[in-house]
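Researcher: Sequence of ABC transporter follows. Predict its structure.
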Amino acid sequence: MVQAKALVKRFGEFEAVRGIDVEVRRGEAFGFLGPNGAGKSSTMRMIACVSPRSDGELKVLGLDPDADGPRIRARIGVVPQLDNLDAELTVRQNLQVYGRYFGLSRAHVRKKAVELMEFAQLTEKAEGEVEALSGGMKRRLTIARSLVNDPELLLLDEPTTGLDPQARHLLWDRLFRLKSQGVTLIITTHYMDEAEQLCDRLVVMDGGRIAAEGSPAELIARYSTREVLELRFAPGEQAAAVPEVESLAERIEVLPDRLLLYTATGEAALEQAHARGVRPLSSLVRRSTLEDVFLRLTGRTLVD
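Model: Prediction complete. Tokens:
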């Protein structure tokens, strides 16, 4: 569905995307993860055919975006990070008007709007203006609108940012349904649990390059351990415990109020730490997550 080789995007002297290779297969959910400024949005804009590449090769649906941009855009759907709905129109009108941009007949878009409102659980809001909708409803409408042309490829930029847990899980359900229907998904997200839930494969980008690629399970196995033991201390007291516990883990992170011990068996490490006289304020054994991988690859320093 998407194939990029040595793909580059420059803005003047600044190189936002630095020669990445990406391959997205038909029917999968593929993720781009990375901190701010990693090059995710620049890559998505090139795939969406709204920003030309500076160098390298790019094929979307087997076509060249430079020569076949309109043909590609007619076959893809785009969900931007910020909702750009027509606030003064009703839910139904937003879908129908957008469908007409693709040259679809009035009869077709009327029927399609009914189908999409049902899919997005917005049927009861059909005649309501967008301005009155909740954030979750607006997000579902934006996704529904992106499906009006029956896209083969759907690009979603931070699809659940700012939503409460119930709204996020409802959107996940809708995206699972789309994937089961054969729609290929490309997702950028800052939520690591979302990436684990939705993505078959993903890349972690940092500084315009790809730092790692694989399925969530593969990345956790490659860059982390099966479990993590968190030992929480009063601020400033955690460093004194490091010599006692450093042999109990494959890797240790020292944070302002705790130690993170990356180990195969967290309970066994905790028992040995207690035996060595380590007395944290609290302890927690959890499984390793994609967030552990993400922070190891990109660091904990805030990037503006």
